[in-house]
Amino acid sequence: MGLRDILTGRHQVKGPAPDRLFAISTAYVTLQAEYQIEPAGSAAIVFQALATSEFEATIKEMEEVVTATGGESATKVSSEDDSYGYRWMVLHNPDGAPSVEDLTVGINAVSSSIETAGHGERLLCAVFAFADAKKRRIYFIYNYKRGFWYPFVPEGPQQRSTERELQIKAQMSSELPMEPEIERWFPLWGIPI
Predict the structure, then answer these.
(1) Pairing of strands 137-143, 76-81
(2) Could you say which architecture CATH assigns to the domain 16-181?
(3) For the CA atoms of the chain, what is the radius of gyration?
(4) Which of 3, 83, 90, 166 has its CA 20 to 30 A from that of 34?
């Protein structure tokens, strides 16, 4: 807290530690080896886009950077807007060659660029897709504002398997910084990955 903070009675809240996002790049090994949960080879970063040329230029530049850096691994990048006004920048590894590490680096590059441009408050979350032995989707969601992960297991249209989510939390809490407040485990319906 600085002198100005004391005089004005305000202080800036520190954001979450950025390295928490990278926890998924090692946790997936445990998911595969111990729980037969395999990476699906796709991830997305979700943010609220601004209708300014500066913001759009930042996003276009990031798509180009991620495409260029993903060239060795053939990671593809696409974007789409959802009905809630959020933009999804989606990263896909080639079929049969999922790389959680490449996806994490790409997602981090995009979020860092948005934060550097002064729009960090627009970041909502990062989503990584996995599938269990029965080919059911399991998503790991990283909330940028809180700096925590949580599982999301859709079970049907607008239904989720809370029991399975809690089981995954118990299994992975030593690997991933899990959101302790379960009421903050927001479902994301219509995930495009």
Answers:
(1) unpaired
(2) 2-Layer Sandwich (3.30)
(3) 17
(4) 90
